[in-house]
Specification:
Layout: E1 5-12, H1 30-36, E2 40-42, H2 52-61, H3 65-68, H4 84-90, E3 94-99, E4 114-118, E5 136-137, E6 144-145, H5 154-172, E7 178-187, E8 192-193, H6 195-199, H7 217-222, H8 232-262, E9 269-275, H9 294-297, E10 301-304, E11 313-315, H10 324-332, H11 346-350, E12 362-367, E13 387-392, E14 396-401, E15 406-410, H12 428-438, H13 444-457, E16 472-474, E17 480-482, H14 485-488, E18 502-503
Parallel strand pairs: 1-7, 1-9, 2-11, 3-4, 3-7, 6-8
Antiparallel strand pairs: 2-10, 4-16, 5-18, 9-10, 12-13, 13-14, 14-15, 16-17
Helix pairs in contact: 5-8
Length: 509
Amino acid sequence: MNRPNILFLLTDQHDPAVAGFGGNTVVRTPHLDALAGQSVQFSSAVCASPLCTPSRMCLLTGKEVHHCAGWNNHWAIFPEHLTWPAHFSAHGYRTCLVGKMHFGGRDQMQGFQDRPYGDLRHGLGHQPDPLAMFPGYAAARSAGVTEIPESLLQDVVVTRETLAYVQEHAAGDDGRPWFVCASYSRPHPPFTAPGRYLRRYCDRVPPPEAGGMTPAEEFARARAAGHADLKPEEIRRGREAYYACVEFVDACIGELLNGLREAGLLENTIIIYSSDHGEMLGNHAIWGKSVYYDRAIRVPLLLSGPGIAPGGHCLDHPISLVDLYPTTCRLAGLPVPEGLDGKDFSSVLGAPTTAAAPREAACSAYYQYGQTISFPAPVPESEPNRAWRTARSAQWKLVEVEGGATLLFDLNADPEEKHNLADRPEHTGRIEALRRVLYRDFSWEQVHAQLKVDRGRLPAFKSGRVPTMPNQYRLPDGREFDAEAALYGARWLNIQPGSNGGIIPQQFG
């Protein structure tokens, strides 16, 4: 079999509603729109957890959070899990990751054979901007024109290094197909971009949607810490800058695709575009992610190439990012490993107008008490409203907040999820059906027991390395050196006031 190459384009924190192919008429995403026109698009795709590390752990293992220890940021993938790239590497693919992946622990490859550039010292991969905020960063509060020279911006480097890697592999002519993940940082905070992109959105971005007062609003709003006191001008600038970041990363992806296409390197290639989670962007008065709303859990998902119907089909089948692992195995003619939670949807890709959806609903979950660091404060497991799990079908979403409310949303009639229908007797059967999905091979008791076991295992997999700069280069012989040392200078600096988007964990690996 002439196995296809796989190009996985992964951005960070891209709300699919902020894209031309998602129906947005303000933001400019011409390259992704063109890709969507050749792809099968899934408008109801979700991540397994709306937070960087958990989502990526689930994506790479094909398993849900409680099956792969993806409890929160800075957890490590334990070695019993056969990752997506490791499986492809074992079956003759040359695999490479370029850019951010936010792995915890000492194994910063996780089955990828090559990794020329990225957050190799678990420094989050996000470049603090403005520079004075290093090692922290913010979001809407510091939105504006980037201070970083464009050639040093992570998204530019990811584009150039990915293009170089694929070209070098092709020139080597060893006959192996390739699996390359180009992992971009934007539009994740800091919300900064070159000035020409920001100027396009001045006074053109609509204000956020007002929040509905659901019974679990207290839980959702608690995740808005650090953003609750934003001034109207900061909200406006933050949203404009986010749109600018989306357009900027679209331009980087366009440069990569055009370069590969001109070199004849996209023939027999499956192209996947997605993001690890969404961004609330001030909707419901919340910024960031980690909440059950669609703006946080829904992700863009486009697939094109061999075995995939052309012509720009858009489907509302509930698909999870964990489904990509088994699906690409089928498309590439590889065996599907046992024990995956992901479902193969390759039949839908081949016959999008007739094939049945692979699942009735897709699940997503978040565990605030799964933190490995006490920042800003420890989160006890016994407190209510500290975790939730949702099952989302094409139209309906059931949310169960641990120790809190049950919510049901009709996403067709109420896309902003303002009206909880869980107490309506006419929806009893629907709730029971979604609960069967929600609690299939899952219980809250199981979560707490497994989390205790996993916490006991985690220290043995820590790297013991102190983070330095956000990103590193890795030479073919394994040597690493910092990519931004000259940009940021001294490493040990106090976190500046206003840094609320996250920190580089200086003493944790």
